[in-house]
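ok so i was messing around last nite and threw this chain in just to see what happens. nothing serious, just curious
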Amino acid sequence: MNENVCLPDEITRRKPSAGEESKTLSRGLAVMDAVLAGPQEGMRVAELCRQTGLERATIYRLLAALQEARYVALVSRYRYGPGERWRALVPSSRQREDLAQRLAPVLAAISEGCGDAAFAVVRDGGLSHCIARHVGSYPIQILVIQVGTRQPLGVGAAGLALLSALADREVEAVLDVNAPALALYGGMTLQRLRLLVQATRERGWSLVGNHATQNVLAVGMPVCDASGDVLAGISVAAAENRMPRERQRRVVQLMRKSLRAHGFDAF
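result:
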């Protein structure tokens, strides 16, 4: 055979092994998780390197592939954010309004049943975003947040329920982005929040006290559709002395019953 003859690239190029392809996919998903959990102004490459533990060259290569597929876009000269293809998968403002309307009777039933205020939040990157609230009949209402409030995902009971429903990789991406702000919420720490996520997963519902608001205790759970996808998180907040352990369980049972009665699923 003539040694000067070059074989076609299709023959000479080594095909990546299944393990290599899986590793590349995992790295790409880690970058995507970090971008989605990032602030609205986008993420710098250095920040993505720090969060994912990947080399700068690897980040640039993965970003190029994600940009080509329109899952990531250049927000400014040095910052990357979600691309148009990803934004098409994220609920629009109208869809959030529709979800708020669907959850309104759920929150009303919960508040009427327990007398305390009930809340609904959705995920907005690394934040929770309150989309609905219903005030109860008890003389002292704990209105910890209002419609439109955004705060780090996990510092409130509804947001903690949402955070705990995410994959571990997504949880870490959210925690890394929110780490600088956590201390502002009752001295919350990364270690404490990780323990709360673990306890929520084991218990099946969230419990948060004295973080977003002092002397307040709240319980929460994720809201799922029929296929099991998490749509939102709901919670009930009350004064700490009004939420002993047995009442926590009763409120959780009421929340679960109200969700199912209105066409939602609950863990």
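not much to say yet. The chain has ten helices and nine strands.
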